[in-house]
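Hi W., the arginine complex you wanted:
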Amino acid sequence: MKEKLWAGRFSKASNQIADDFNSSIHVDSRMYRQDITGSLAHAAMLTAQGILAQQDYEQIVSGLEGILQDLDSGVLTIDPQAEDIHMFVEAELTQRIGDAGKRLHTARSRNDQVALDLRLYLRDAVREIRIQLDHLIAAVLEQAKANTDAIMPGYTHLQRAQPVTFAHHLLAYAMMFTRDVARLSDAVKRMNLCPLGSCALAGTTYDTDRMLTAKTLGFDGITLNSIDGVSDRDFCVELLSAMSVIMMHLSRFSEEIVLWSSWEFKFVELDDSFTTGSSIMPQKKNPDMAELVRGKTGRVYGDLMGTLTMLKGLPLAYNKDMQEDKEAIFDAVDTVHHCLEVFVPMVESMTALKDNMYAAAQKGFINATDLADYLVKQGMPFRSAYKIVGQLVAKCIREGRVLEDLPLEEYRALSPLFGPELYQTIDLHTCVEKRISAGGTGMASVQVQIDYITHFLAQE
Ligand code: ARG
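Structure:
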């Protein structure tokens, strides 16, 4: 066992079980690139400020760059016994370049170092997720464009309610995903401040230039309170909450895809390559990908709740509890990433079964509101019209008919305001076309939505 970097104060080696319990290397080793990038910026700043000698700096740079190269190429593997990635890199550096390596940690603590590394890591991870969300929005947009003529029942309470186009329904999801992108970039704005230089908690006696380090690392500025700089994990909570909302949206979409691909609905056919069979039932084609996305939503909610709970009782400043932040947020990042990775091509390759949607739209009296509106436009108060149409629907249900089948006399028996144009009014195409209100399912509104999403993507 190598000597601990902090061994000086202790008269006894630490217990192996305690060491294993304490170590976070299995979780934080994925931040090695960010750790090295942060150290390079820190060393450059120390040198610019005259705190570190030029020749030490040069050794540190070549040492760190060598470690990065060797880790990237696999020549160097991360020691699973190391306490964490920060200790591993520093120990490796010192082993490679000697005393200059021991100077790197001047005016720095692991507390601000880990806060920095995590922000750097998440900044990249969020960029990735944003790109994936853009791809998803593009896939949904393409499906919407191909289905502006597909009339389906819109639902409330999962009961057929009013006719909409499949395009309109899909664009609802596109709108949600644009907000998800906005939430992520909003959280990044607050996260993109550099905590390095906060040191253990109180700042340092060295004349550091925190703005320089922040600039080198692409931050918009520095955190202004050193205690906050090392204690704050709001950025994790915000990102976890943004990711929970993404998963909630994906899960609702998944639920609909599961329903739509059932024989009961058969509104869509998933591509064979994104479904699975059954080990016993030869006829089965299961929407496992959508189900798994729905299922994994719970993990991300758990990551959010776990992090909030971990933080709630912590006194300022750093506490070791906070090491738990990474396991949760990395799990969430990975889960969202993998879900989007499969979800995008699943949506792209999904086929809308327009005839089945239309057939379903013809059942369930989803043009009843239009019939009531027709009477209102002839001068009848809405509540009276509502009642008459309700009676007509009840009659149809009793007799196994639909509104389109009833002869005009039967309509007129309930109100003389009914005329022959009513049949045109209750035609499903008319019902959709006449939904001219902004944001409605009418074609003009759907086109506005398509333009909005297209513009959104062009700006991304
Ligand atoms: N592995 C630690 C973490 O992830 C790094 C910070 C440790 N700081 C300390 N003073 N023990 O939180």
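The domain at 111-142+158-359 is CATH 1.20.200.10 (Fumarase C; Chain A, domain 2).

W.
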